[in-house]
Amino acid sequence: MSPKQTTLSFPRLPPRSTTSSTNPHKVSKKIQPAKPDVLTTRLAKSLSTCRRGAAEGTVSSASTPRRVETDVLMAIKPVHLANIASRQKNHEYRKYRLRDGVERLWFYETRDGGSGRAAITHVAVIPPDIRRTPGTVPTEPFGLGNDDFNAGRKESKFGYPVLELYELVRPVTVGDMKTKWGMGGAPMGWRFLPTGLWVDRWGFADDDEGRTQQLRRVF
Questions:
Q1: Nearest 5°: phi and psi at 68?
Q2: Has residue 125 been placed in a domain?
Q3: Where does the record place Polar residues bias (predicted)?
Q4: Residue 107's domain spans which residues?
């Protein structure tokens, strides 16, 4: 008769950690993300520098943004621009939604068979956070195209109320856009405005006389 076998049992050890232990008394420092610069503050600080570079159409300071994201350039036919100037048309309609924060539309008036000037001629001020959709445009006051837009009969899906309109004393021609501001010609769709052009024609917040030399208020 074979002797009875005895099985020895050992206590199970906890698995060995593969990570290094941390010091419970060590205080970790939280890295706070840097607050983004406000565009208008950056532009204001670099205004004098930009003015020196505006003549060449370049940004002469590395800290200055190359484009102004509150201002958008887009093409418009002369007939529609004339209706806005006469206040018969109080919304500008487009297929695309501009981001919140855009508050000025720079209009490039197309040639349109010779009736237009083929230049940037006007700046429209719009609300920075209102983007109308079909059915939301107020019926009063009346505006050309509003009823069709509300009824969904337009290809455009977004409407931008025009609050103010300014005319450039010196329109920006296609030649200026190419050679002076490096924009490559007439806009297709929309694009943000180059900082140099913004400073040259609009960025005189601290100089009322300079602003009036560049702009004429239509309404």
A1: -105, 110
A2: yes
A3: 16-25
A4: 68-193
In angstroms, the CA 111 to CA 171 distance is 13
Using the structure block, give the residue that is written with the tokens 């560049």: 214
- Domain membership of residue 148 (yes or no) is yes
Could you give the CA distance from residue 133 to residue 146 in angstroms, rounded to a whole number? 11
Q: Using DSSP, state whether 71 is helix, strand or coil.
A: strand
Of 126, 132, 141, 127, nearest to 89 by C-alpha is: 141
Q: Compute the radius of gyration of the chain from its Cα atoms.
A: 30
Cis peptide before 141 (omega within 30 of 0): yes
Give residue-wise pLDDT tens across range 53-74.
Answer: 444 444 444 445 699 999 999 9
Q: pLDDT by residue (tens digit) across 114-141? A: 899 999 999 999 999 999 999 999 999 9
Plot region of 152 (φ>0 → left; ψ -120 to 50 → alpha; else → beta): left
Residue 135 sits in a domain whose CATH number is 2.30.130.30
Q: How many CA atoms lie within 13 A of 198 on its CB side?
A: 26
**Single pTM value for the model:** 0.72
Question: E strands, 77-203, where?
Answer: 91-94, 104-109, 119-125, 158-161, 164-173, 190-194
124: in domain: yes
Q: How many domains, in total, are found in the chain?
A: 1
> 172 in a domain, yes or no?
yes
